[in-house]
Amino acid sequence: MLISVIGCGYLGAVHAACMAKLGHEVVGIDVDDRKILQLSSGRAPFFEPGLEDLLREQLQAGRLTFTTDMSAAAEGEVHFICVGTPQKKGENAADLTYVDAALGALLPHLSADDVVVGKSTVPVGTAARLAALVSAEQPTSHLIWNPEFLREGFAVSDTLSPDRFVYGVSSGSEDDDAVRKLDEVYATALDSGTPRLVTDLPTAELVKTAANSFLATKISFINAMAEVCEAAGADVTQLADAIGMDDRIGRKFLNAGIGFGGGCLPKDIRAFMARAGELGADQALTFLREVDAINMRRRTRVVELARDLCDGSLLGKRVTVLGAAFKPESDDVRDSPALSIAAQLQLQGAVVTVTDPKALANASRRFPELHYEADTSAAVEKADALLLLTEWQEYRALDPYALVESVSSPRVLDGRNVLDAAKWRAAGWTYRGLGRP
Ligand code: UGA
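That is the input. Now the predicted structure with uridine-5'-diphosphate-glucuronic acid docked in place:
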């Protein structure tokens, strides 16, 4: 099929490359000419495992092109809206400027029977408003809301083999030309048995925000348990293992630590609360305020623990932060808890060195005042304390026996509870986890 993908950020760049992989002819469109130039030459503007190889393969195959010219969408029969919906400055609500601009620019290029597919995460009610604009422009064109559930770090495989498809359509019915067209786009995954749910527009929009809210709640739940474990002298990692064996609960997303960050969960729960308020349903989501508060408290707690670890004062202490990205296998530092903790430690007088395998360029743009060191051995040299804040495999695999020689004081704070505490202690380290004795 002929497909246009509007917005070539995280979601759009991956989506465009994956749609080409499925055999479609795809044009990716974005207003940022630097990004388009990079993508056209087979370079990904961000780190995502497997993406660059896929881009090159599809560019070479001739199925994928990128442009800043919206008129290229005129060729397409299916148009994916993949632009960002960041948090509004100074408010909790989502900023829909880019979604509105993308659709506004696309409308003059729509042809009869085209399908516009919304993938961006939007406040419930947005899709119905946009659907009206589409049918006003082209009465035989339709809008489908098809939320995206990809995880950074697994974006390519999540897009090619998602665990489900959700299609929101105005009619709420499967018997719909737009549904048939989107089925054609996703035929490979559908043929291999991926479930597909057809809903009305508001349900599809809510599926996405509800899913991210649930994940955020799960993480804050276990972090709340970590607080209680700390007070009671219990171990939250064992607690998570034990409750996770109940398959109604499940072990995934029960890793206590420094909390969640990134470009999605924090802003999505806030936008959800703001939207519920507008709808008069704010009481239903007041618990998300607590989820947010527990999450933000983790960052303060880690700074306190780091101070304890450094004999009560951070002033002049050389602290090495292992990890800057909001999670491993990503160079994304948007609302990264690791980086926010590093900045707070610096403000409180510590001499902070941050290292990360992929995220240093983004981190130094966000916090230019911090000191960055790409080489792990150089970063830990003469440190008074190590803080593992993003659980990259190479930090999990550090050898405490070898490392003990290079630091000034063998103290480690395991912000993700991934190190073998007994082994580190045996090697002479003072070890602190979160929610562990
Ligand atoms: C999240 C969702 O997981 C995706 O399904 C969704 O599509 C995406 O947002 C989105 O809305 O676009 P992502 O932001 O890539 O994906 O990151 P997650 O893997 O969800 O991790 C979020 C944060 O939670 C990270 O900072 C991670 O370190 C933290 N986390 C995760 C924990 O602290 N504990 C856990 O047990 C799991």
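The radius of gyration is 23 Å.
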